[in-house]
From TrEMBL:
InterPro entries: DUF4922, HIT-like_sf, SpoIID/LytB, SpoIID/LytB_N. Transmembrane segments: none annotated. NCBIfam families: SpoIID_LytB (TIGR02669). One of its GO terms (biological process) is sporulation resulting in formation of a cellular spore. Residues 345-462 form the Sporulation stage II protein D amidase enhancer LytB N-terminal domain. The lineage of its organism: Bacteria, Pseudomonadati, Bacteroidota, Bacteroidia, Bacteroidales. It comes from the Bacteria. Residues 13-154 form the DUF4922 domain. It comes from Muribaculum intestinale. This is DUF4922 domain-containing protein.
């Protein structure tokens, strides 16, 4: 690997021997960009670079290209242009730079500009050129030398790889620490794009960068057109640098004429639109997902772009409630873009790329009954938006971690595991209860109401005391007391997620970490908003399937024979305990939920945690919660007396429904469940999850 300073020193030495190129590099360093548009922290800029007219105004028809000498062939290059050999390429200082220290990496052989078979070279180059972003212009998407294969490279930072999703241009992203895997996935995507009728590759721009944490991040932008219809007025001919955030102009008139509207018209013609502040939702994975396109779509490789606002696609056999007691499949219809992501194991992931506010309509329609009180739906819209933005911000801050162990800790006879949402590497969130349920288009009779609910809270998020996004968790029923984050997931305290009673005013919470206090609490029915909703309120907050399958939720009882319990634990854990003889809570959280449970059997004894793993091991689907007390029956049966439904952290959906029915507004509801919450409309969310 060449470190950044070595590369910069080599460039400086080359420019000392080439005064004309050195002057152009000095000029671009002094050139001030003009910001045309800001998209939640991502800036699209314009530069005035008259020297670039040789590229911007170049005639690229086959006759014109054939008639001129190839300026990338060694025989035709200026003698002053130094070359550094590298794996069948030569690294060159670009004599007409867009940014300081702009490089061109040209193939030693005169061969056409086609990317198939060269993605591995691009990845190796990104790893070799520390502190640089490597870019590729397709022959019909910005390359001024379509007859001679080449890459370009610019110092990292000029292309905002992490926040590009926030702009108006669609890109397909690939990420991972293992370059071979990333290369394979990119090649598969490009292969699925195929060739056009004239044998040329589909037009694409590609940017690739090895991030500081070792991840290789790739963005592929499929192109609709080489140049916009307005060309040459203004004379904007978008290549990769333009497509990735910096529009190059060559005249004062064009530089001053560009504004946000003009920019977005140009980008809409030459690339595909990115839904407004989009989110990528993983819907399902199967060998051959069956889908139907409803309305007009345009296909590029395995991505289907809607051409009309009301276009949608329908997927068959979408899993709902995977590994929960309500697990089933449905036929569901989704708005927006459909991506089919092919995996090395032969499966295909169907991903919905959708604008955030449209996504929220599908979440609220799935998580709540549309007949719920308006203030409850507004509260849920705010926390669902906050949570989704938090996931995106965390992934950006972590540079999209390539691997996740989901919090698995095993030592001796302890198995402690928690399940969170950062194990998705190819999309932001999934559509099932693992993240937050999203079922696409809501029922037609409720779509107008849900649209109005989302619009009434447009952009609003929950912030904690330091102005950062609150990790707004929610569950069906807290059981009377809220749990704290660290007892269910990573052992990190969140100030907005404090234990408290589900009452107003809040009464003191007993120390439910104490076993005697937990038994008293769970075996009684303390006053709480979620304790006694009437049937109409319950029906309004639960979907039909949840209402029909859940007659009790605040306090419940499950009974197992020893044989039955032993079989269930063996099936669910994969561990043979023999005949189970005892279940003993070792640690509880502040809501009384068991964090560590000792399971004793005739063959082995083991401690399991955290709450979701306990619920999974002790049921063929899931226990309602881990807040339970174990009683042995007269014939040795295990009787579990439990409280609540779900993890109990953050908003309690049943309790919030009762609050709304009693006249509390959504802001009051949110402040009740999220300690010291500040509800504010967000304009920009940076990669640290802070609203600025």
């Amino acid at each position: 690997m060449m470190d950044r300073q070595q590369i910069l020193d080599w460039i400086a030495e080359g420019l000392e021997r080439w005064p004309e190129a050195a002057e152009r590099h000095r000029m671009v360093a002094a050139c001030g960009p003009r910001v045309l548009a800001r998209y939640e922290g991502f800036e699209w800029k314009a530069l005035l670079l008259p020297a670039r007219k040789v590229s911007t105004l170049a005639r690229l028809d086959a006759g014109s290209v054939a008639a001129r000498p190839c300026f990338l062939c060694a025989a035709n290059r200026p003698q002053q242009q130094a070359a550094m050999p590298w794996r069948g390429y030569e690294i060159l200082v670009n004599p007409f730079p867009v940014f300081p220290n702009h490089l061109t990496i040209a193939a030693t052989d005169h061969t056409p500009q086609r990317i198939p078979g060269r993605i591995a070279d691009m990845a190796a180059l990104a790893g070799e050129l520390e502190g640089f972003t490597v870019i590729y212009n397709g022959a019909r998407s910005g390359a001024s030398a379509p007859d001679h294969f080449h890459f370009q490279a610019v110092p990292s930072g000029y292309i905002d790889m992490l926040r590009f999703d926030r702009g108006p241009v669609y890109s397909r992203r690939f990420i991972g620490r293992d370059a071979d895997t990333v290369v394979r996935d990119v090649e598969q995507y490009l292969l699925s794009a195929g060739l056009s009728d004239d044998g040329a590759e589909m037009p694409v721009n590609i940017a690739m960068e090895r991030l500081d944490d070792g991840n290789l991040l790739v963005r592929v932008v499929p192109r609709r057109a080489h140049r916009p219809s307005c060309y040459p007025t203004p004379a904007v001919s978008p290549g990769a640098i333009d497509i990735f955030g910096t529009i190059v102009t060559v005249s004062d008139d064009d530089f001053m004429a560009l504004d946000r509207d003009c920019l977005e018209r140009i980008l809409a013609e030459v690339a595909y639109p990115n839904p407004d502040r989009c989110i990528r939702v993983g819907i399902m994975s199967s060998r051959n997902p069956e889908f139907t396109l409803n309305g007009r779509y345009e296909r590029v490789a395995d991505t289907f772009f809607p051409l009309d606002d009301d276009a949608s696609f329908t997927l068959e056999d979408v899993p709902v409630g995977s590994q929960f007691h309500w697990e089933h499949t449905e036929r569901r219809t989704y708005p927006g873009t459909l991506e089919l992501q092919r995996r090395s194991d032969g499966t295909v992931e169907a991903v919905n790329v959708i604008g955030m506010e449209r996504y929220l309509e599908g979440v609220i329609g799935a998580e709540m009954s549309p007949e719920s009180p308006d203030e409850l739906l507004k509260a849920h819209a705010v926390i669902s938006r906050s949570w989704a933005y938090k996931q995106i911000a965390c992934r950006e801050a972590l540079h999209y971690p390539a691997q996740c162990d989901c919090g698995l800790k095993e030592a001796g006879d302890e198995h402690i595991r928690w399940y969170d949402h950062d194990d998705h590497t190819d999309f932001d969130v999934c559509a099932d209860d693992h993240c937050q349920r999203y079922l696409g288009l809501p029922a037609e009779e409720y779509s107008v109401k849900l649209h109005e609910i989302i619009r009434a809270t447009s952009g609003e998020v929950v912030l904690d005391g330091d102005g950062s996004l609150c990790d707004t968790r929610f569950s069906k029923c807290c059981g009377g007391a809220f749990e704290e984050f660290e007892y269910c997931w990573e052992p990190v305290h969140h100030s907005c997620l404090e234990a408290a009673r589900d009452t107003v005013p809040s009464h003191p919470v007993p120390d439910l970490r104490d076993e005697e206090e937990a038994v008293r609490w769970i075996m009684s029915a303390p006053e709480a908003f979620c304790a006694s909703p009437d049937a109409d309120v319950l029906r309004s907050v639960l979907n039909r399937s949840d209402f029909d399958t859940t007659p009790d939720f605040y306090r419940w009882t499950v009974t197992y024979t020893p044989d039955e319990l032993s079989d269930i634990v063996r099936e669910r854990s994969g561990i043979d305990f023999g005949m189970i003889t005892g279940l003993q809570p070792i640690e509880r959280g502040k809501s009384g939920r068991i964090v560590r449970l000792r399971i004793t059997g005739t063959l082995r004894t083991m401690t399991v945690g955290k709450e979701l793993e306990i619920r999974r091991w002790l049921s063929r689907s899931h226990l309602y919660s881990s807040a339970f007390v174990v009683e042995r029956g007269d014939e040795g049966e295990f009787i579990l007396h439990g409280a609540g439904w779900g993890h109990g952290v953050g908003l309690c959906q049943i309790g919030a429904a009762v609050m709304a029915s009693e006249g509390y507004d959504y802001r009051t509801i949110l402040r009740h469940y999220f300690n010291n919450a500040d509800i504010r409309a967000c304009l920009i969310i940076n990669v640290a999850g802070r609203v600025v």
